[in-house]
Every structure is written in C-alpha cells, then in structure tokens.
C-alpha cells in the first residue's frame, strides 16, 4: 500500500501528528509545508512547525530543534553582565552562531533591546531548503542546503529521496525507484543551472519548471529581520571560518547546543571554540553551553571574557558548559 503523508495544514495534519507522537503509524512530513508557513504563519501552526524542524537535517547532520523561551535565564544573566561592563548606552553587537531556527536568538534580541541599543546577527549553516517542481510533474523535489535531494512530495504523499522506504510499504519503494530515475535527474539539472546562473537565493520559473528557496529560520524571526536591520539572519558555516577568517568581531559571541561531542569529536569541538573565540573583541564575552535536553530554559552555560588573547571563565549558569577541558585559554587567530 501507499502510506499517506502530512502534506497539508488542517484536521488531517493535526490528527496525523497526534498519531505519530503516540507511536501509532508512520507519518512522513512534507517539508514543502515550510514554504506555506513562511507565507501565512499562525500560532496554531507551531506544533506542525516543530515537527517540520525535527525532520530537517543537513550540513553537519544536526536537526533544527529548539523552542522559544528556553534561554530566558541566560538572557537575563547576560543582560546584567553587559550592563555592568558597558552601561546602558553603549551599542552592543552579538553574533549568535549555529542558532538553528533562530527563535532563541530573537528571544535574546528582544531581551537585550529592552536595556541597550543592540544588534544581533543570528547565523546557521543549514539555513534553507530548495524545492524544485519540474514542468508537468505532479511531484516536487526538496533539496537541502547542500543541494542534496531529501524528499519527493506529491498530492497527499511523501517519498524519501535520501533513504529507502520501509519494507512494509513495497509500493512506496517501487514509486521511489521511478522518481529517482525519471524525476530526480530533471530536478537536479534545473537546480544546478539555477545555482550556476547566480540565482542561489532567488525563486525562479521557467518553461522547464519552478524553483523556490525556502528559508529555515522561524517565521517570527524572518518577520523581525524584515522589520529591523538590527536583527539579521545569515548563512554562516562556523567551521569554514578556519580557512576563511572573519575580520568582524563582536562584544558577545554565543554558541549553544552546537560545540558538543554529541555532534562532533573533541578535536572538532576545540576547533569550533577557537574560531568562535577569535570573533570576540577584547573585553568581550564568549558564551558556550547546551540546553538540548532542557524544556524550561535551564541552559548549562559558561561565560568567558577575552583579555587580549586569553579566555577567562567569569561565571557559570546551571553548572556551566559541560566540556570546559575543551576550551583552550589561549586564543589563536585562524590561519589565512
């Protein structure tokens, strides 16, 4: 049989999510819904949006799972520290790196904006999807940020392009084979031609099909960035900075839930910490922590101050960053 997926908003979507979370059945979720939610987000869509983010993974394979309000205590502690160091009139610049869908970056921006003139740059490597619908095809192909195929989305159903279908759905497997052979090559060619033409952040329509660039930042964050230049959303690969050093420095650099051995080996984490620290201006703060298992904002965080080219821990929250031994107190500039 063909298993129906979650491809639309409404009663079926809500029922399917409830069944899926109760462990009843397999409910593939169409990532094309993210484009619809960008255009017409409502608070009632938050549960669907959370499921969609939980199904997205790209770049380094980290899923985009976070929720508003998780880091309120950290935001308040940071605001107190900044007021002590800079007063309330000095403009504060922040880079929130590897920020997932940036909803906690928006929380921080709003919290700090109540007390300071502040600008926040929220960045993530896996910041968008591509959807490609070849002309006369009833299926749309979804690609991740690396232009790797993820899904085929048709009318009422979702077929994986990156993994084999479960054996208990043999018709799905047969359909996937046909889609991989006849639809995917056309979609790949359309996307590659679009990227090579320089249209890497634009939608496009042609006589061969349509292409859409779907950003993965939360709709509330996209709206906030459209309203104010002091809140910016950008694509940024933290680790690429090791070969392409950034000259920009900030009073605060925050990295939460990314630089952890749960995602990378210890050497990779050390490299990421070194790169993040190099973006902190002298006298500024580096915040490292993790709250991936927390639902109440109880983020485990350590704040480090940069003094010349040396990092010093100045306070911890909820027992602090879990891997302090991976933090090199000596800051070295990434090689040019």
Describe it for me?
By secondary structure, the chain is α/β, with parallel strands linked by helices. The chain folds into two domains: 11-55 and 128-215, no CATH class; 72-126 and 218-326, Rossmann fold (3-Layer(aba) Sandwich). 30% of the residues lie in helices and 26% in strands. It is built from nine helices and 15 strands. A seven-stranded mixed sheet has the order 11-4-3-12-13-14-15, with helices on both faces. It has a six-stranded antiparallel sheet with strand order 8-7-6-5-10-9, sandwiched between helices. The longest helix has 15 residues, at 72-86. The model has no long low-confidence stretch (mean pLDDT 90).
Please outline the helices and strands:
Layout (H helix, E strand, L loop, with lengths): L10 H11 L11 H7 L6 H9 L2 E2 L3 E2 L8 H15 L5 E6 L5 H11 L4 E7 L3 E7 L5 E4 L5 E6 L2 E4 L9 H13 L1 H13 L7 E3 L2 E7 L3 H9 L3 E5 L14 E7 L9 H13 L1 E11 L9 E8 L2 E8 L19
Parallel strand pairs: 3-4, 3-12, 4-11, 12-13
Antiparallel strand pairs: 1-2, 5-6, 5-10, 6-7, 7-8, 9-10, 13-14, 14-15
């Amino acid at each position: 049989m063909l298993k129906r997926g979650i491809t639309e908003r409404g009663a079926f979507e809500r029922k399917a999510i409830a069944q899926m979370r109760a462990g009843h059945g397999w409910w593939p979720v169409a990532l094309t819904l993210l484009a619809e939610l960008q255009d017409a987000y409502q608070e009632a869509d938050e549960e669907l949006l959370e499921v969609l983010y939980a199904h997205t993974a790209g770049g380094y394979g980290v899923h985009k799972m976070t929720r508003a309000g998780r880091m309120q205590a950290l935001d308040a502690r940071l605001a107190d520290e900044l007021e002590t160091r800079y007063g309330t009139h000095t403009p504060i610049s922040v880079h929130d790196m590897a920020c997932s869908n940036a909803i906690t970056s928006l929380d921080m921006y709003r919290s700090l904006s109540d007390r300071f003139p502040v600008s926040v740059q929220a960045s993530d490597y896996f910041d968008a999807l591509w959807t490609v619908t070849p002309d006369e095809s009833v299926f749309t192909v979804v690609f991740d940020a690396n232009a790797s195929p993820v899904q085929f989305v048709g009318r009422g159903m979702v077929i994986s392009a990156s993994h084999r279908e479960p054996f208990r759905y043999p018709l799905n497997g047969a359909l996937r084979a046909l889609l991989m052979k006849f639809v995917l090559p056309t979609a790949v060619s359309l996307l590659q031609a679009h990227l090579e033409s320089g249209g890497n952040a634009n939608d496009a329509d042609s006589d061969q099909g349509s292409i859409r660039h779907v950003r993965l930042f939360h709709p509330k964050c996209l709206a906030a960035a459209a309203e104010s230049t002091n809140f910016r959303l950008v694509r940024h690969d933290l680790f690429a900075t090791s070969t392409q050093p950034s000259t920009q420095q900030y009073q605060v650099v925050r990295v939460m839930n990314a630089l952890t051995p749960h995602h990378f080996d210890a050497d990779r984490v050390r490299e990421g910490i070194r790169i993040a620290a190099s973006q902190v201006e002298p006298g500024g703060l580096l915040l490292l922590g993790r709250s991936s298992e927390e639902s109440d904002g109880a983020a485990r965080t350590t704040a480090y101050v940069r003094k010349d080219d040396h990092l010093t821990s100045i306070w911890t929250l909820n027992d602090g960053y879990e891997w302090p031994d991976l933090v090199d107190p000596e800051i070295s500039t990434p090689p040019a």
